[in-house]
Automatic annotation (TrEMBL):
Gene3D superfamilies according to UniProt: Zn peptidases (3.40.630.10)
One Pfam family hit: Peptidase_M28
Residue ranges annotated for the Peptidase M28 domain, each copy included: 3-166
MF annotations from Gene Ontology: carboxypeptidase activity
Annotated PANTHER family: N-ACETYLATED ALPHA-LINKED ACIDIC DIPEPTIDASE 2, N-ACETYLATED-ALPHA-LINKED ACIDIC DIPEPTIDASE
Protein name: Peptidase M28 domain-containing protein
Organism per entry: Clytia hemisphaerica
Amino acid sequence: MKGKYEPDRYVMLGNHVDAWVNGAVDATSGTTVMMEIARALGEKHKTGWRPRRSIMLCGWDGEESGNNSLLTAASPLLHDLMFDVHKKVNDPYRDETVFDRCMIHYKDTDYNKTHKIYSLGAGSDYFAFYKFMGIPSIDMSYRQSDLDQIYNTSYYPQYHTFHDTIFWMEHFVDKDYKVHLTVARVGLLYLLKLAENTLIPFTMQR
């Protein structure tokens, strides 16, 4: 979607489309979220709206075979943007915001004490953007809370297995797709703030 005033400056949202096996969560859930964001942007565009800066929605492959293409973690420049957005989106199943839930989830960590977000590593789609090109980036997902966790793992037990299916997703994980919709709302607000604000909302003091 071409920007109205700064068409040569891009805000990108993307997700890999390849998977080890069935990939209902990894990576189809991310693609589902991106398609919902595309639908919302399309509806807004029908009213005559255009963003200040250009928006690109991207899908790529090659992530599972070694990230040779292109919990939240982010570049420090984007930390305050994330806090602002998280306070505006409600948790899908509780009477609290996404930010409130994060504060509970990380109650004994620096996140709660200093509102510090994890730094991006080298294990996912953002790697080429962040590590090679120095582009401020965000990685977002909903994960099982450590407070409720049964398995001693940061990933769900079906991760990268044959059991990561749509049936499992719709019967045991997100039956009504409320979590998907919540992540889409967060992602859409990220996009709009970065594409629409006259001053890009970077945090220079962190």
